[in-house]
Design brief:
The structure is a single chain. With 245 residues, this protein is an alpha/beta fold. It is built from 11 helices and 8 strands. It folds into 2 domains: 133 residues, Rossmann fold (3-Layer(aba) Sandwich); 102 residues, Rossmann fold (3-Layer(aba) Sandwich). A 4-stranded parallel β-sheet has the order 2-1-3-4, with helices on both faces. A 4-stranded parallel β-sheet has the order 6-5-7-8, with helices on both faces. The two termini are 17 Å apart. It comes from Phaeomoniella chlamydospora. This is Putative asp glu racemase. Pfam families: Amdase (PF17645).
Amino acid sequence: MASGSSLKIGILVPSSNTAVEPLTISLLSSLSPNVTVHFSRFTVTQISLSPDALSQFTFDRILAAAQLLADAKVDVIGWSGTSAGWLGFDNDEELCRLITETTGGIPATTSTLALNKAFEKLEVKDFALVTPYIDDVQAKIVDIYTKAGYTVKAESHLKRSENHSIASVDEQTLNSQVAEVMKTDGVKAVTTFCTNLKAAQQVEKWEAEYGVPVLDTVATVVWDCLKIVGWDASRIKGWGKMFEL
């Protein structure tokens, strides 16, 4: 798709998330009016490994929200969420397949699959993980990435499970988390791994300060949506080096 044409991006959002929409709109503002972004929600209120929390991510709920985006005839759909971090990458791969099948052919991606694509392009296997999550969720994310051949060199998490509260994490706290993980030798990249963190707008500052790529999961899904439809992502400035890939 040529960068001079119009593009409609559909984004799936956890219901209790208040960061994705304003950040995504700001991120894409330089491409307006040619690029528009449209949102659909499904219920997510808690992040844990309990059966009730895991059931929030059943495919039928997400596919119903995706179909609403298809009604708007979007060109690509992105799940702006990191649940594959504890459910497994294959879960998101199957979700994307089902979204495309259910919506009559609309391509799909997710924050986590997009993050992994960015890691691959950067040839990064050793990274630091910054999240707001509780202990067992964080441990599961580390385990899944380790089994996939990555090394989580350092991690920081805030032990929060109520999703709505995550958006209240302030800039000072995020700065401290990133500073903490960057004390470890051998970190080749940092990911802020939660789409309810207000972190994407700080990526360029952190990259300048620490000299490594910082990949935020609100931004990764937007980057991959643009790449999937052949749009020039490098036109987005001020949101990190990933958009130059």
